[in-house]
Design brief:
By secondary structure, this protein is mostly helical. The chain has one domain. Helices cover 72% and strands 3% of the residues.
């Protein structure tokens, strides 16, 4: 068993003792549902609108600045339910910096360098207030200590990376909000089991805010979260992962955020690798992301978003199984828990293989078919 002697019981106990987790979800969801239409109307009047064309997949002009509603939906319940100590003050202040950088980009369109400087500025704030990885735990390796000179810059790099990954993923109606909601709810449950109450509350607030935003953002979207929302949500998820998951003695703490955030990590890795391979600028947008590939395969926006959500859910389930299913308590393997955990892991693997098949193997097969057709002498004669 991992971590506590009975993680599933500790989650229920912590939830019963800290109902702020539930109230945070409800308040965040309600605020975002109510505020988003007003923010959308303001964005239209101010001209912060996504016009169809280029790498955009929307067919009609759609207002941006959804991040403003998300920020208010995060800030109010955070101030209401979180203990606003030093770390949480830094976390909220950094969130304000992140959303401000995104708002400027939504209005004016920042070049990659000033945007990156703003992202680094946002990431530095929580680190300056004490939110950084000073140790990590990994199977076999055990607990590793990180000196400040290594832990601080690595934490800044992690936060900036996740901010950009969520931003890259935000290219289709409801996609980023749905993935963030799944990540927030999963982080909440794991953080509760680890006794990290503040991280659990903030993760729950992210879940509630994204759930409320989907009311207006799922296909056909009436508003986009824009860079203001994507940078904000990426920042909060990254800092929560540091505050509530990475700085623990749980056996596979490093594994949890990597698995839960695997989809944006995989998406960004493939896109950046492709751009580097073809000598393209890394920070210039294109249509090589996972959602673009699904659309080219004939998926509708709704089906593509739901498929990627399903993939995220399978990976989140694997993370939860790793945390909660006691496959080897006291060094003794148990058959049924092991079988259940293996089944959940198999579903996640099969879903991942399906995605790779649809997006890559099918494409390769089509190329082979076209080449065979081009070399077919009967076809040439016809």
């Amino acid at each position: 068993m991992l971590g506590a002697s009975a993680p599933h019981l500790s989650v229920l106990d912590e939830l019963g003792d800290h109902l702020a987790v539930v109230w945070g979800v409800l308040l965040a969801c309600a605020l975002v549902v109510v505020l988003t239409p007003a923010v959308g109307g303001m964005a239209r009047r101010l001209g912060a609108v996504d016009i169809p064309g280029g790498r955009r997949v929307n067919q009609l002009p759609v207002p941006r600045l959804g991040g403003v509603a998300l920020f208010l939906g995060l800030l109010v319940p955070a101030l209401a339910f979180l203990h606003v100590g030093r770390e949480n003050r830094g976390l909220l202040l950094g969130a304000a910096v992140a959303v401000s950088v995104g708002i400027v980009d939504d209005f004016r369109g920042l070049d990659w360098f000033p945007k990156l400087v703003g992202q680094v500025g946002a990431a530095v704030v929580p680190v300056a207030f004490g939110v950084w990885v000073d140790r990590f735990t990994f199977p076999v390796v055990g607990i590793g200590q990180l000196p400040d000179w290594a832990g601080m810059p690595l934490t800044v790099l992690w936060i900036v990376a996740i901010m950009n990954m969520v931003n890259f993923l935000d290219g289709m109606d409801g996609l980023a909000a749905g993935v963030a909601a799944i990540a927030g709810s999963t982080f909440c449950v794991i953080a509760l089991s680890l006794g990290k109450v503040d991280a659990a509350i903030l993760s729950a607030i992210v879940f509630g805010a994204c759930l409320g935003f989907l009311r207006h953002n799922f296909y056909p979207a009436r508003i986009f979260m824009g860079d203001s929302g994507a940078l904000l949500i990426g920042y909060v998820l990254a800092t929560v992962a540091v505050q509530g998951l990475l700085k623990t003695a749980a056996t596979v703490a490093l594994f949890f955020p990597l698995l839960v955030l695997a989809v944006p990590i995989v998406d960004t890795t493939f896109v950046v690798a492709r751009r580097l391979k073809h000598g393209q600028r890394v920070f210039v947008g294109d249509q090589a992301h996972l959602h673009h590939r699904f659309l080219r395969r004939g998926f509708s926006q709704r089906r593509a978003a739901l498929t990627i959500w399903g993939w995220c859910l399978s990976l989140a389930a694997a993370a939860l199984a790793t945390r909660f299913i006691p496959i080897r308590p006291h060094g003794v393997w148990h058959f049924w828990p092991t079988l259940i955990a293996a089944g959940i892991a198999l579903v996640a693997v099969l879903f991942s293989v399906y995605v790779v098949y649809v997006l890559e193997i099918v494409k390769i097969g089509n190329r082979i078919q076209r080449r065979r057709g081009a070399n077919d002498p009967l076809r040439k004669i016809a």
